Fold this protein.
Amino acid sequence: MGTDLWGTTAIVGVGETDYVRGSDRHVCDLILDAAMEAITDAGLKPADINGIIPPPGYMSAEEIAAHLGVPDVAYHVSVLMGGASPTASLQTAAMAIAGGLADNVLVCMGWNGYSALRPKPDARPTKRVMNLGPMGETVRNHYAPYGLMSAAQHYSLYLRRYVDTFGIPEDAAAAVAIACRNHAQLNSKALMRGTPLSRADYDAAPFIAEPLRKFDCCVETDCATAVVVTSLGRARDLVHPAVVYLGGAEGHPEPADEIANRANLLELGIHRAAPRAFARAGVSPHDIDVLEIYDCFTYVVLLQLEALGYAEPGGAPAFVADGNIELGGRFPLNTHGGLLSQGHCWGLNHVVEATRQLRGTADAQVTDAELALVTGYGDLGDGSVAILGRDR
Amino acid sequence: MSTYVPTPEWIVLDWHHACIAAELLCIQRCVGCGRWRHPPRRFCPACQSDQATFEPVTGGGSVLSFAVSHRSLDPGWQAHAPYATLLVELDEGPRLLAATTTPPGEIRIGQRLAVRTEALSEHFVLVWADPASHDEPASMAPRARGNA
């Protein structure tokens, strides 16, 4: 199945705004700026775009088309998997292109993740909100009444189980936080550039929701990103080297809409997505040169690395130790700084970074990077995977 | 300070109303195959029957996991930080979250619990759980409120 889908499309344009805490710009301006930058980066015009996947909330595909000047939207769809949405959107874009429904698909993400709760006094007000999707009802009815309102609290329900099951040491995830912060020092757009993180800083930080301390949690930011996907044939006529979408997948835990009644609390969507994605791309975990792993929380990175096959259950702390995930290590991870230190753009910033790595134009470039793996995670444990490769 | 109380709808509301009427924790049970399930669902995932009732449970269970929150967006909960929220596996099988009066440092995975309910409105009950005394089966523990 799908032999004419995988490896037949490519990312040809990327755009991203600055990552800031407190923007002077309206959330719609952020989204549209990144979208126009991605189209321009591809060497295309808005009229060339005829497929749109909008962010989960904030703006509709129809509005985005109208503001950009896209005259003929032949296909649009919304993907509602929380932080797993943008990476899952790549497979939807590829299907639309391979199926002949659209030629050039724009995937957008952007939000006022910092300012929504803390607007600047002079900020232009907005009533636009994220679409929480499936988790909204569960949080409202079953979690928030028990004092669990934030993602850190929801996920701590299974992170505690993870720590307890495998005897994970208290400092197991420090290497993830520090690697991301180190990489952010090299990234021109990273929010935390110029703010290094020492091990002493990490250890001294207070708990947010155990086992998550302050620096285990990503930075809420105002930002937007966008990518343009097209057929590999068209990509080869465009400005940049094509970055081929070799394979991808999504997966959902069972049940997906709540955490408590999963047979195994530690079996997440990515456990189902990962084998599908590797099989579709025809590569194995150890072929990958760059890992862009969804890092809303450090411990969630550990769980995903195990799900992807980089470590046995409980073995991720050893995998991330000893510089293995630092630039120059065997598996450089989140070379832009990730959600933890570049900024939180729902993982579409991971796709942007993976694209730059495979073009050879990243700020923290991995030498001879040929294969990159991106994950998305969110919505109480949904997962998505994308495997991207340099055109050969 | 009071905490957030939702106004449920649909079959979640039916569940709360059943608990309030019984003054006990009730859980949805399939008429077709007898399986317990939570949160409320339209069809039984095992036999697809759409016939279900809400029946009282024993109130016994154990800690499957728990969250310890040091920060809360809810001012009512923030006043109690750090506080634990328990993920309880009921003896009947289904799992749910429960508030607890037990300090976080005294909670262990696998600990036996006694569960009770507190109506916070005409349409919402909060589930509470605390360690069953003397490691007796929860159903043998002294009765507090509701099922315990």
Summary: Chain A has a mean pLDDT of 96.
